[in-house]
Amino acid sequence: MLLYILKTNYYYIVSARGDFMKISEILASKKNTVSLEVFPPKQWSKLSESKKTVKKMLTYKPDFVSVTYGAAGTTSGYTAEIAEDILAHGGVPLSHLTCVNSEKSKVREVIDTLEQGGIKNILALRGDIPKEMTERPHDAFHYANELIAYLKAKGDFCVGAACYPEKHPESESIDSDIQSLVYKADAGADFFTTQMFFDNALLFRFKERCLQAGITVPVIAGIMPITAVGQIGRSVSLSGCTIPKAFAELAATYAHSPEDMRKAGTDYAIAQIRDLLEHGQNNIHIYTMNKPEITAEVLKGIADLIR
Ligand code: FAD
Question: Which stretches within 162-242 are classed as H helix?
Answer without folding.
Answer: 174-187, 200-212, 229-239
